[in-house]
Design goal:
Two copies of one chain form a homodimer. Chain A has 13 helices and twelve strands. Chain A is an alpha/beta fold and 332 residues long. Chain A has three domains: 1-43; 46-153 and 290-317, Response regulator (Rossmann fold, 3-Layer(aba) Sandwich), CATH 3.40.50; 156-286 and 320-326, Response regulator (Rossmann fold), CATH 3.40.50. In chain A, α8 packs parallel to α9 (185-201). Chains A and B meet through α4, α5, β2, α6 and α11 of A and α4, α5, β2, α6 and α11 of B. The first copy, chain A, binds a DNA duplex (16 and 16 nucleotides) through residues 2-4, 12-19, 21-22, 24-27, 30, 45-46, 48-55.
Chain lengths: 332, 332
DNA sequence: CTGAAAGCGCTAACAA
DNA sequence: TTGTTAGCGCTTTCAG
């Protein structure tokens, strides 16, 4: 059923119907007639046709690196919550950590004429800039701080620093590190920088054999921990870039009989549920992921409404949560 | 830029451009011209306009009860993966466990003229049937087995039975249960049924004081475990409807000094990552969530293509994974 | 193989 | 307040 048929059924003009749905002048009488006919027919106007005329789709493209991961899930949850509340819908694109797909989805979003885009970024390349430049709609980047774009991000360096420092203060001597790929500025580079700053401040040397780069998974954390702990000497503390990596490392430690925190302290960033319940509850930096999603969505909606606004960056703070994995009395 | 402007820029007719994008007859010469001009201008045809004409949006509405939860995330991941691969986009609607919102989103999807709907169902009411009846597109229901609809679901009763039986065989005498709301047929009713069947078969009586209903959260599991374990007598085994609930229960046990598996066996359904890493690794039934998502999406796509097909139900099997939380030698 | 033209369902002047 | 009308950007006959 289309607007003409519906208008006829209701005994009013197309315009009246259009006005009813878009809030124009309308007599109560016609309004009542229309409402009644809606109940009868279940008519709902077509978004597509509406979009062709108005160039407003009320759809937002959301690009995420993966769905089954607590942090991205929480960000996405925050995003969709405010988007839905404001009458927008989310076109969700999952890249499965393949950032070439980000470009692909950006193109798709262009065809869909979305009103805006939120990109949960990992690696940001030249290709990304080019693809984003072509989008004629506001874009918000979450999780990375990229010059020239509106961003919502976390204090990765600060969190890694605080966590590492907390361990340093327990008097450890041989710091270990399992990080993420350095091309991921926030998770890879910045967290590593924070770790190194704290190590340096403590006057310690970094043994390269204790430093590894893992993928974002428990399995990968397990493997890297195995490598690190299978040498003659072992670290007495381990900073992991993410909770998943730490979870994998802890799994290995349990198997290998390495005690946490007696033999090695462990800390990581993210505050996943997993860390809370682990056999050695994990010291972590709580990032406000959902808040990040909410903020990003609000930022986007603001930009959509005010058509042209300058890029701005929102950095969210973190909370250090100390749990058993670093609870060791000083041994200096 | 629209098709007319683009056609002019490329020196061809609108029809030629349309044919280029939709695969009609076209000379190589024109094809080349068009391709070149696309590179130059970055033109992409509007999905909305396309949808108005063809009534095909290439969008699928996906309704989920929540995003940050491993099982739904994995189902959704499976869904989006095949949808994207087939050139469809997912309009994601998160109800935050408020099933009135499901009706709302169904209405929205009608306006969006989505090509199909996938509903990760929890509670299914009369309102749902009515709303679904109004949709003129194929619908697949995931997670529940509902008469008259195409469904992809799990063997909830069987999994609960197998898990409970596994515990019964260890010679326990006082079964405990933390379930989900009975209005959720799959998770609430069926899992409870499986549990009770195994208990009955073992010739044991169910102490009502050891049975609780929890929400889908760690916190709720914790609270209910507290209630169950704070009486004079205690259960010596505990079946939980979900891993989150079990996780909460384990958290309480750890606090209360109740040893797993020495004092109480625990098992639950879902195989969340959390169970693997827990201080007492959790015995669980692995449900193939991602496969469910993939199957549902494929089923939907099939229905979309073949316009009219009869409802069918696909029930996925499970795997029992025994871990330490039930590893107790028989004490008969 | 190609272009002109009609029309998808809707909105938004405009004149009444 | 209202209805008429001219499109929005695209597809798709249809005649060439």
């Amino acid at each position: 059923m289309n607007i003409s048929e519906f208008a006829k059924a209701a005994g009013v003009s197309k315009s009246a119907v259009s006005r009813y749905f878009n809030g124009g002048y309308l007599s109560d009488e016609k309004r009542a007639k229309i409402e009644e006919t809606i109940k009868l027919t279940g008519y709902a106007p077509s978004n597509s046709a509406h979009a062709v005329k108005t160039r407003i789709t009320k759809q937002i493209g959301v690009i995420i690196p993966k769905l089954s991961g607590e942090s991205t899930a929480r960000v996405t949850e925050g995003i969709t919550e405010v988007l839905n509340a404001e009458g927008y819908q989310s076109l969700l694109a999952n890249t499965s950590n393949d950032y070439n797909k980000e470009i692909h989805f950006l193109d798709l979003f262009k065809q869909n004429r979305v009103d805006g885009v939120i990109l949960l970024a990992t690696v940001f390349t030249e290709m990304h800039s080019r693809a984003l430049a072509k989008m004629r709609v506001p874009v918000i980047i979450v999780g990375q701080n990229i010059k020239g774009y509106s961003c919502v991000c976390h204090d990765d360096e600060g969190a890694a620093y605080a966590l590492t420092k907390l361990m340093m203060e327990k008097g450890v001597k041989y710091p270990g590190f399992i990080g993420a790929n350095m091309s991921d500025i926030a998770t890879g580079k910045n967290r590593r920088a924070g770790f190194e700053r704290a190590v340096k401040e403590a006057g310690l040397n970094l043994n390269k054999a204790f430093c590894e780069v893992a993928k974002f998974s428990i399995d990968s954390g397990y493997e890297k921990a195995k490598q690190i702990f299978s040498g003659k000497t072992r670290p007495d503390c381990l900073f992991c870039a993410t909770d998943s990596i730490a979870a994998g490392a802890m799994l290995y430690c349990r198997e290998a009989g390495i005690k946490i925190p007696e033999d090695v302290l462990i800390a990581s960033v993210g505050d996943n549920r997993i860390g809370q319940l682990a056999y050695a509850p994990l010291t972590t930096a709580h990032f406000h992921y959902k808040t990040a999603g909410i903020s990003a969505a609000n930022m986007l909606l603001t930009e959509i409404k005010s058509s042209n606004s300058i890029p701005r960056t929102l950095q969210l703070d973190f909370d250090i949560i100390e749990r058993k994995s670093t609870m060791k009395t000083e041994t200096v």
